[in-house]
Amino acid sequence: MQGQAVEECSTNGREQLLLLEHPHVITLGRGAKETNILLDEGSLESISVEVHHTGRGGDVTYHGPGQLVGYPILNLRPDRCDVHRYVRDLEQVLISTLAEYGITGERIDGLTGVWVGSEKIGAIGVRIARWITSHGFALNVNTDLSYFRTIVPCGIIGRGVTSMSRLAGRDFEVAEVSGVVAAKFAEVFGRQIIGSEETNRGGEL
Question: Which of 16, 21, 105, 170 could cross-link 95 (Cys pair, CB 3.0–4.6 Å)?
Fold first, then answer.
């Protein structure tokens, strides 16, 4: 689905924001260290966690149920051809989303993503080819954080992870949070969501 969306953006300019939840999976970015996966293959299989290499930047991360993953398929030409700005804009989308739920997300100098204190709540890992984006971000909504103990998240030692549900003391509807993320994304990137195959799961821009 992601590859087809990138091809459509390249050939006919169709931009999309794909929002979804993954089954339990560990993904490695370009240049990731496999030593940051702390369990062996058999142990991961026993808890139904797969491992996949991806074309995104960054190190190792976990995706799973209760985590909202976003794949923006955008053409950054002609006026947004700046990788650092793109990453900061994705962070702003998550910061603005969290603010709607009374959660203060912040940036930390020298690190990518969105943090609450010393714990990461939103991860960023992008791929940009010919200024067309793919991959993007992951927001921990109701994520089972115990799965992050299988890795060194993003290869960063000494910092933890958190989720919206842990901070608020209640669960959230991922579909509802998806709608807020889509609205904040459109606001930050100056786009308009014009359609979706499934309510609150992103759509065409």
Answer: 105
Q: Which of 72, 68, 55, 103 is nearest to 190 (CA)?
A: 72
How far apart CA 175 and CA 166 sit, in angstroms, is 18
Active site residue 154: yes
Question: Cα separation of 190 and 102, whole Å?
Answer: 24
Is position 204 within any domain?
no
Contacts of 124 (CB under 8 A, 6+ apart): 58, 87, 90, 91, 112, 113, 114, 136, 137
Whether 160 is covered by a domain: the verdict is: yes
Question: Against a cut of 0.90, is the pTM above it?
Answer: yes
pLDDT < 50 stretches in the chain: 198-200
Q: What is the Cα–Cα distance from 178 to 172, expressed in whole angstroms?
A: 11
Question: The domain that contains 7 carries what CATH number?
Answer: 3.30.930.10
pLDDT digits (tens, 9 = 90+) for 138-190: 999 999 999 999 999 999 999 999 999 999 999 999 999 999 999 999 999 99
Beta carbons of 93 and 148 less than 8 angstroms apart: no
What is the rounded CA–CA span in Å between residue 103 and residue 106? 10
Catalytic residue among 69, 154, 164, 174: 154
